[in-house]
Amino acid sequence: MRHLTAGQHALLEAELQLRLRQLDRSLAEHHGGLSRAEHAREVLQQDGDDAPQRDSERELDMALSDRETAELGAASQALARLREGTYGLCADCDAEIPFDRLKAEPWALRCVACETARESRDPRGAA
Ligand SMILES: [Zn+2]
Q: pTM of this prediction?
């Protein structure tokens, strides 16, 4: 991350920590402090006339949580890379990721070219 100044570095670290806190809180709210397994069991134990609606709500809730869990993973991975000194380098090709991209997406682990290549290979797996 020689291409980043100390100030840029500090700013990105603060952004990542803020994002991690937001995701943590959001995930905790979705599950009311329960783990995913407990949450699923609780939903299954509820039955009634509005069960089909609950099913779709649960699917939405799970999909949202999956995305947030993935973002949480990427953000904590980025923070770890920040400490290791490999932050800001593309995970695939080692290219320096421009500060403008990192500012917009501090948890970005790849340069635009690699990210685009990855998305076209597996659109659903793109972070
Ligand atoms: Zn790359």
A: 0.67
